[in-house]
Write a structure and sequence with these properties.
Structural class: alpha/beta
Strand order of the largest sheet: 7-6-5-8-9-12-10-11
Oligomer: single chain
Largest sheet: 8 strands, parallel
Number of helices: 7
Number of strands: 12
Distance between the termini: 24 Å
Shape: globular
Strand content: 15-25%
């Protein structure tokens, strides 16, 4: 059970409580479940309690979409999603917003799950293996709970953009050889810290090898430098993303009169 706190001047104080129970898949429950609480920055008064599970799913895929917008080739057309759970669904929703994918391949440990997800988008089709999904794709998104690599560096080609959101210490879904083969991007260099603050796949690496997405947005460091460059985005999740997303939800709900007022 993790507590993620964030504050920025002009926004509400935000705290997310998130549980990570990988065995939940057997129960038909998400591995990650969360509650987000907002507090008045002047008085500390509780303002809102929000479903953090849904926000976490969308803000995670949203950051992946941002990395794709910044780093994927502009002629990108084929998307591969490995994993058909909560994050697979949110990636299918968010990634087409930043690139005009004409083909989407979905692979899952359970083929039936890949079929179910693919049925929700006319551009998508289920494939039997991760290798079949990855070979020849332009963007590859890893969205699994796997504690060991789910793709091989041998399947990759120059110019791909690879993303990974899985979290399963002490291992992980992203092969270190893939990281070595490409140029690494992260949300924050805190991703190089030991778990639970950081990613186990990045353990032992010098944080200077990673470029933050914010640095690319601000023009402080380069994004993709050639059409043949392999770019790799490893997500860890950061409380500032929850803060930004929850503030959008809270103020839109207030404006539109959505939600329920409760007395504590």
């Amino acid at each position: 059970l993790l507590a993620m706190l964030a504050y920025q001047q002009g926004r509400e104080v935000t705290v997310k409580l998130v549980s990570v129970f990988h065995g939940n898949a057997r129960l038909g429950l998400p591995a990650h479940q969360a509650l987000i609480c907002l507090f008045d920055p002047q008085t500390g008064t509780p303002l809102s309690f929000i479903d953090g599970t849904y926000i976490t799913a969308l803000r995670t895929a949203g950051a992946v979409a941002l990395s794709t917008r910044l780093l994927a080739r502009t002629d990108t057309r084929v998307l591969a999603i490995v994993g058909a759970g909560v994050q697979g669904r949110s990636h299918l929703k968010m990634l087409p917003r930043v690139r005009p994918f004409s083909e989407i391949r979905i692979a899952s440990h359970h083929f039936a799950h890949a079929e179910q997800l693919a049925a929700t988008d006319a551009r998508a089709r289920a494939v039997e293996t991760a290798e079949e999904a990855v070979r020849g794709a332009d963007v590859v998104c890893l969205c699994t709970n796997a504690g060991e690599p789910v793709i091989s560096s041998d399947w990759l080609a120059p110019g791909m953009h690879i993303t990974s959101v899985g979290y399963r210490p002490p291992g992980g879904e992203l092969d270190p050889k893939v990281i070595e083969q490409g140029r690494l991007f992260v949300e924050t260099r805190q991703a190089f810290e030991p778990p639970p603050a950081g990613c186990s796949e990045l353990a032992g690496l010098d944080p200077s090898v990673g470029t933050e997405l914010g640095e690319v947005l601000l023009g402080r460091r380069m994004g993709r430098q050639s059409k043949d460059e392999l770019t790799v985005y490893k997500a860890m999740g950061h409380a500032c993303e929850d803060m930004a997303a929850a503030n959008l939800v809270y103020h839109r709900a207030k404006r539109d009169g959505i939600g329920r007022t409760v007395v504590l």
